[in-house]
Amino acid sequence: xxxxxxxxxxxxxxxxxxxxxxxxxxxxxxxxxxxxxxxxxxxxxxxxxxxxxxxxxxxxxxxxxxxxxxxxxxxxxxxxxxxxxxxxxxxxxxxxxxxxxxxxxxxxxxxxxxxxxxxxxxxxxxxxxxxxxxxxxxxxxxxxxxxxxxxxxxxxxxxxxxxxxxxxxxxxxxxxxxxxxxxxxxxxxxxxxxxxxxxxxxxxxxxxxxxxxxxxxxxxxxxxxxxxxxxxxxxxxxxxxxxxxxxxxxxxxxxxxxxxxxxxxxxxxxxxxxxxxxxxxxxxxxxxxxxxxxxxxxxxxxxxxxxxxxxxxxxxxxxxxxxxxxxxxxxxxxxxxxxxxxxxxxxxxxxxxxxxxxxxxxxxxxxxxxxxxxxxxxxxxxxxxxxxxxxxxx
Length: 394
Ligand SMILES: [Zn+2]
Ligand SMILES: [Zn+2]
Fold this sequence. Notes:
Alpha-Beta Plaits, elongated, binds zinc ion, 394 residues, 27% strand, single chain, 34% helix, four-stranded antiparallel β-sheet, alpha/beta, 16 strands, Aminopeptidase
């Protein structure tokens, strides 16, 4: 679909981006580089600094639109959006690559560098073959890893003007056959969120603990509740659970009984409804335990991801578009989370996994590197999907 020269320059782009990774919400140079490339493609619409942060500041998203408006009615039959992510991770790269990360402690270990090259390939293609009466939007979204980016883009009034009819995304998945597409109707990626449960009581001399208020009994009971949360709520799901990831309780001070504790938990579920039940249950139980033991409490959420739920129509369309490609229908969702779920909650759409090879290090592993051959494969899949939408709607 693209020339050998174009493919080679997209591989170079991927490696350039890999060399200069930037953390979530700080993707300024990455966005600048992409914007320069996109300007050369002469898109029919180009939006930068897309996205609005919680404090009202502009974000680093970019949307490039390709497609001439129909002269008669000035509307598009369909507006098709493809999304990729801009951010890297706070991980020190531990493989020796010619294009190794120059930023200490930061690297592209989720393959977003590859996703950007794929989307730039799609942009290159549709700049040459402008859709007639349709529009293809390539969205480069910031801050996926922290779960803020999709919401920031959706909150931007300029994005609502783009008003896509269908949205698509892919994620490379190590451990699965190289180049195959993995899809399912309904949940593709689980909902997840980080939760900090804090209890505060009163410290005391360790010789007279009864004069203080220790968070220990409440923490003890909270752990029991979390470990058995499905039993308490009568939920039968192997993909819904709470993982206790850390605990802080008092200090290494043998003369003091503790006053404070923090428990860190990750909640995960393939259903947004179960996630809501978890939060309601935990809030109620923690409040009750605080009252019982005379403690103050606080609950804080972060890294909040809704489940990515694929629309049946969009999945059928992907399968029809990729009829000649290796497509695998998944029995169960992926356990990891993706903020693309916010797009599929609002628009008809689908995400699919793109196999990154059976013996590849996992995502977020310091040795992972996106396989360059997937740039051509991923962009071919997106282009076929766009062309399928156009052929079934013209
Ligand atoms: Zn990631
Ligand atoms: Zn990712």
